[in-house]
Amino acid sequence: MNRTWTKTYSSPAAAAAAAVNYDWLRDVGQISVPDLIHRDGRDLVFAHVDGHHPAPADLPDLAVALARFHVEAHRKLAGAAMNEPHPTTSGLTIPGFSHRREQRLIELLAAPNPPRTRLTAEAVRAWISHADALPPAVYKDTNLRNILIDQGSKPVNVDFDTLTLAPFGYDLAKLIVSAVMTYGSLATGTIGEMLDRYNVFLSQAALRPCAKDEFTAWIEMHHILTFPYLGRNGYRYSWIEVSAWHY
């Protein structure tokens, strides 16, 4: 018997939304997805994937895989405006980059115990506005737990809950923050190598690389957004305390 795994959502509507995201991501390709075997009410049933969540040694190659995925997603997003919802030809509407993100960042910065960060509320607004002029890719919440490295050393997406427009580098920044908060400090040069390899692929595709100041801003946004989960979901280390990323 073929092995499966089931994800149960809070409502049939939430499951249906994840299934629509799955269909679009499967069509983009470049990073594999497991077969979606059955859709039933609150449940999505997927084929089992043998593999492991990315380890630090997997990260540079995963950065290149993300670049391939983002370039192909960009090609499917013709006419998309970064901070506006984008209706696709498949019937999916992908939320804009600013959708709920700007408000959530500002809320967290105003919390009684906010994360230590160089971003202010004004800087958040400015970077969201800056992103509006950048070519759109997507954010798929590429944290370590949403990716498996299969038996052939290829990445497989295994979570389809979140999909928004985002600038190039934003999803890579989430992977890096997730890795540091899970494993602690990465080997010297790892983060720079990941960004360099990602940008080389963008340049080969005749696309604008992600500038270091932009990438720093996306890193800080993910630090703010992920800070409330410290101590949960495998996040054992504070980004600000153990990061090897130098500003």
Automatic annotation (TrEMBL):
Residues 21-182 form the Aminoglycoside phosphotransferase domain. It holds the Pfam family APH. SUPFAM superfamilies: Protein kinase-like (PK-like). This is Aminoglycoside phosphotransferase domain-containing protein. It comes from Actinocorallia longicatena.
